[in-house]
Input
Amino acid sequence: MSDDEGDFWFDRDPGPLVRAFALTGGRARTSTAFDLLAHVVATDTARPLLAGLAPELRDILSYADRPVSVAEVASHVDLPLGVVRVLLSDLLERDAIAIHEPESVSYLPADHVLTAVINGLRAL
Output
């Protein structure tokens, strides 16, 4: 039996070695709701914290040196969105990031206005 035959059960690409729940300490909820379109950016407070942070948090901060959306951060660090939201919450509590929420959709017309427009178009 050669070495290749004995190692057949090992994965070539085992994937992440740390489970997502271990990265968040078992937490699934955050103190702040992060919209997918909200932009996060690293603050000046983040630089002194880098040495004592977990690698995932350092990766988020290095990517957030310019404003990026929460969805982009999740894609870049290749972690589930829920995990990224918990990690962002941790960084926000340490003042390592700032959040810029997207503009409100309150400028959209009311439902009765849209209904009137649709009815007017149908009448044409």
